[in-house]
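Obj.: predict assembly geometry.
Materials: sequence records (below).
Method: joint structure prediction, all chains together.
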Amino acid sequence: MSLPHALLTALLERPCSGSELAGRFDRSIGFFWQATHQQIYRELKRLEELGWITALAPEAGRGRKRAYEVRPAGREELRRWTGEVHEPKPLRDELMVRLRAEAVIGPTDLVRDIESRLALHQDKLALYREIEGRDFAEGVPTRQRELHHLVLQAGIMAETLWVDFCRKAIGVLVADDAAKGKP
Amino acid sequence: MSLPHALLTALLERPCSGSELAGRFDRSIGFFWQATHQQIYRELKRLEELGWITALAPEAGRGRKRAYEVRPAGREELRRWTGEVHEPKPLRDELMVRLRAEAVIGPTDLVRDIESRLALHQDKLALYREIEGRDFAEGVPTRQRELHHLVLQAGIMAETLWVDFCRKAIGVLVADDAAKGKP
DNA sequence: GGCCTTTCTGCAACTGGTTGCATAAACCCG
DNA sequence: CGGGTTTATGCAACCAGTTGCAGAAAGGCC
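Observations (raw structure tokens):
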């Protein structure tokens, strides 16, 4: 639902082609909104049909790149959407379903899954902290920089939460196993 | 993706009909996995075809209720699934896209949206804390209770995070406005 | 008993996102 | 310069979840 607007934002930051967008989605915006290249191409086509973006003159490069830039109508639409009040999507986490399943069908191998999750969250947290140190440790705090920092902080907070939660969950599951005499 | 297993879990806790499941999803499991009644009916049908659940003899009540119970194959499948290692779904949050949009197109009405979100998260947090006080303040900590508590704690942690983040975000956005002379 | 409402079940169509595959241009290397 | 590789674009089918609507059985009301 926010893909078109994420694309408009990225293209406003800097006009570029589909594949470049895919690359930039993997970083920055992609921390909170992922998109495959197929989604991106499909959506770019639609945005062009809507008159929100236009293709720029094709420049040389690998393959046949088509860069896009945002038209005034697109910028206007982005402003409209950003100012709207939206219902937040409720949380949805498979791990919680699995924990409840564990509660009914007794001990399973769930701990291993949580351990691997823990590692992933720790990695991501380390990455975010590194970015924070590199990009936000010093320099003038403009509005834009502050907002980008805010988004990164959300990432840091969320990953910290999951690291904490995984540790706590492992604690509960392992203590249970120990209590049952499984060393 | 976890809907079938969420249903199996719920049906193992207590066999019941589609509409009852919908009601129970609104509470408990529904804090982390939502499903509409259409999804539930469709899925129950599929689970029956797979031989994981069976319909019980129809009992009286509103409409024509069909209660289901889990068969051994279903329990086995749930165990298998719970023990599997899954990739966690990456975070996806529209608000972050909107904050980045704000960063590019200058001040918008985004604060209002965040304020309404803040209220929602506070409400949910209060609800979760109330449930915690009611259900987990005392009593023997069995494995099942501990796991249910753990899931609830995840909810509390997440809602706390969002309350904190909304406050922080409002701080940034409002400070910016003030700096621009808009009182 | 007839009628309106509520509860429960379900179909059909749609949407956003994913997967698998195809094609074309540039580039790289022997 | 010709064949393999990489990069860029895209189609088609699919899957999970959502929306809108409809019919059937039970309950309540007059």
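Conclusions so far: Residues 94-179 of chain B form one domain.
To do: check interface contacts against the pulldown list.
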